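Mods, move this if it's the wrong board.
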Amino acid sequence: MSPAKHSVVPKGTRPVGQVTFLGAGPGDPGLLTLRAVEVLSSADVLVADPLTAAAVRVHCPSGVELHDADALPETFVLDGDGYVDSNAALTRLFPSVQAGRHVVRTVDGDPGLDGRAAEEMLACAQAGIPFQVVPGVAQSVGVPAYAGVMLRAGRPAADVRFVDASHCAPESYDWANLGVCDATLVVRTRLGSLPGSATALVAQGRKPDTPVSVTLEGTTTRQRTYTATLGTLAAELKAARVLPSPVSAPVNPASSVIAVVGEQVAQRSSLSWFETKPLFGWNVLVPRTKDQAGALSEQLRSYGAVPSEVPTIAVEPPRTPQQMERAIKGLVTGRYEWIAFTSVNAVKAVREKFEEYGLDARAFAGIKVAAVGETTSQALVDFGVKPDLVPSGEQSAAGLLEDWPLYDPVFDPIDRVLLPRADIATETLVAGLVELGWEVDDVTAYRTVRASPPPVETREAIKGGGFDAVIFTSSSTVRNLVGIAGKPHNVTVIACIGPATAKTAEEHGLRVDVLAPAPSVAALAEALADFGAARRDAATQAGEQVYRPSERRPGSRRKAR
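Not the wrong board. Structure tokens:
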């Protein structure tokens, strides 16, 4: 079938739309530039390379039209009649540009180093389609940096040459000039081509003992870097089960990799910073809602982990709203001296009631406000309320009681405290306040119910050892996760926020590996990172290959201590 033909834009006519060729970087979503994010927010049509498609999609408007860049052929031809003769998805979208739409073509790495993108730019130029270019972090630069191979470390004027041998067989590439020089080579190639490329370089004059690094899935949390020499490269990759061997299933030999050849590779052991993060590549299950897990997941990412948020608790309004309605009325009429918030959900419940009645943070005027910890305190600040009391020590109900003042009839005209909480909250805080002389209105502000089971794949990963660690932030998260998804596999590291949560985990047959030194999610994440670092150090000192917990799955189930 002959391709559709699109008329070239008439001279003197300036289309409203345009094509943007945008560099999406080598894989890490954090390497998108500020300009790239700005451009993506105005996209009407997105044509994306597969590696970074998910990362760029999140910055586009919800109604963006999506296209897979793999559908684009390698060549574009302008025929004698002034038409672009191609079945390429990009050229089929030219009418969209002429109609004023913004087509964003994202390229893995940098578009200026991508031959395919250059051909597409020529097609735009020949058809009179306006375009712009937003550079990105090139794979040949970003991947070595994440691998700890600094291309000019110790040699500021070192000769560095970039080689793209990803579209040809090793024997067909001209290695002659590269073999006789002493430049550091950054080679983008296919995994299966590496042994042939190394052999060709040695044949052309490179010393067999020249250091080499090979990085797969660079800048992502699945990154793996192997070091060898030109002479030992094939054997090392087979031993690491990366290339085919009699006892291993190889990685896809067509996978694109970045190899660095040169003396700079020798300094990787000192400069590696990404793959040596304490939880690098760990899949960590966070059984909390997305709203609650945001800060925790971000902290885990900073340690190199890949967090997966699975809600185990759903929050619902109380069955009868009258109690909360009376409490809000009491706040406005001066019934309370204090209001104490023990969770972000309590803040949210009160805030929603305020908005329902047309109130705002000014209704707290004259009332002292307490928050059980930093997270709850921040939720109040976001509402426009600065807490008067936050625990100076332990961020818990017990810590709050340590700092709570005794009731003094001289200084406290009202002796009543409002405590909006969950329906399953413990009585620790109520009993402590009563002991300090206060009367407490303990009000059910919300109910916590078990969430729906996660997808089948997630349940299988939990029970089958697909997660390296699970973080439990309360006893209810233990009970609910086991209830909706089953018990984590015996290889999975169990981390608990405090003794009560740890006791519940053990009652469910789980061995607790990590206990937070303080009852906060930040301390819990840090404790898990310390555990991961200690495990890595022990394996390194023993001369063992470092495995993630999920890569070791003994047959026996986890037993309680």
